[in-house]
Amino acid sequence: MNFTLSPEELLIQKMAREYAEKYIEPVAEKIDTENRVPEDIITGLAELELFGLPFKEEYGGAGAGYPSYVLALEQLGRVSSGPVMLISVNCLALGAIDKFGTEDIKHKYMPKACKGMELASFAFTEPGTGSDPKQITTTAVKEGEHYILNGTKRFISNAGYPGPMVVFAIDSESNKPTAFIVDKLCPGYSLSEPWHKLGYHGGTLLDVYLKDVAVPAENILNGIGGGFPVLTFGIAFGKVGVSALHLGLTLAAYEEAVQYAKEKTHRGQPIAKFQATQLRIADLAIKYETARWLAYRLGCLANDAKNPALFAKEAALTKTFVCDNSVDAARVAIDVHGSYGLMNDYRVSRIYKDAIMGPQVEGVADMQKMIVAGVVLNG
Ligand SMILES: Cc1cc2nc3c(=O)[nH]c(=O)nc-3n(C[C@H](O)[C@H](O)[C@H](O)COP(=O)(O)OP(=O)(O)OC[C@H]3O[C@@H](n4cnc5c(N)ncnc54)[C@H](O)[C@@H]3O)c2cc1C
């Protein structure tokens, strides 16, 4: 067992932190108010190879693996959630393509998205369901060498950017969920206005309307009716990114509270002199360290995820703990700030709004616990 980061991991961590502080922090408020990540930030992240960090160089990735991915996303998430959502969802969808795609499919769809020239999406949720694949209503009907897709997908990240989208539909042959790669913005693909959500601004959510979208048969991942493993494995990789983001939010809450406790004075002395403040700072230190090692561990497990069910369990329990923990950390940091913590001028209020998003994304908290219990009880 070795808890020491390698020189390469330390370098990637430092690079992400420096980029976040120098380029993202100055525009973090703007990202939040405009709900848009500026083009030059996307270009900058792409130049650092952060859109394809975990993937092999032959598919356009940086070949740095998931432990480095977690370290980098933590540092970006410490400053702003929007850019992390773009990367995390991109890597979620690419993770599914990497695991289940043929060589031709991987070479076709991964390089541009790994380089940030395109952004990949993963579309499961529909107006009627976000947790239950059996309730999917999007259909796929075979016509010659193509499948014709019809349906609506809800709350889809990165949907407005060009690139591949892994779409789940019930196909007419197997009557089961099947995973198709759709080229976004193709004929028959249209979008809603962005949803106005509480946090994660910059990572826009759109509904996607598929009307007679023709997808070539070679764009099926894991065969007809084989969508369920693609879904569970893909979302498990998504939880690596979300866990890293919420670790970054926990770190930010911790740092903001420490700084405020030293700066805010009562009767000429910092509020850090009060034992109540000290206990909150200690709570935050505990929350950060416990989340950190669980999230780093998930990065290591993701690098070598052979058993989908076991990996899904580890991802589910990590994501649940780290996300819930980040909400608690943000709440404690607000308590340290008193009413100032509720004001938009103070960073902790944005941390709270971002943190509260985590327990619902990549599968609600209750579903995570069912995944964990399913593996624990049934093997
Ligand atoms: C910021 C953000 C980004 C997102 N990005 C994407 C994306 O890129 N692609 C995508 O497909 N989706 C995306 N989503 C959607 C998200 O994954 C779903 O909203 C989420 O999985 C929950 O689905 P739901 O909202 O329909 O809740 P539901 O499935 O309706 O669940 C609501 C509640 O019902 C209970 N429940 C439901 N089913 C069960 C069950 N079987 N057992 C026990 N309890 C149950 C749970 O308590 C749950 O809390 C995103 C959402 C957000 C907020």
Annotation keywords:
Butyryl-Coa Dehydrogenase, subunit A, domain 1; binds flavin-adenine dinucleotide; 379 residues; Butyryl-CoA Dehydrogenase, subunit A, domain 2; alpha+beta; two-stranded antiparallel ribbon; Butyryl-CoA Dehydrogenase, subunit A, domain 3; single chain; eight-stranded mixed beta sheet; 11 helices; 3 domains
Radius of gyration, in Å, reads 21 Å
Main sheet characteristics:
8 strands, mixed
| Number of H/I helices | 11
Looking at CATH, the homologous superfamily of the largest domain is Butyryl-CoA Dehydrogenase, subunit A, domain 3
Indicate the overall shape.
globular
Helix content: 40-55%
Question: Can you identify the CATH class of the largest domain?
Answer: Mainly Alpha
Low-confidence stretches: none
Bound small molecules, deduplicated: flavin-adenine dinucleotide
Q: What's the CATH topology name of the largest domain?
A: Butyryl-CoA Dehydrogenase, subunit A, domain 3
Total strands: the figure is 10
Structural class: alpha+beta
Specify the CATH architecture of the largest domain: Up-down Bundle
The chain-level mean pLDDT equals: 96
**How far from one another are the termini?**
25 Å
Q: What string gives the helices and strands in order?
A: HHHHHHEEEEEEEEHEEHHHH
Q: How many discrete structural domains?
A: 3
Strand content: 5-15%
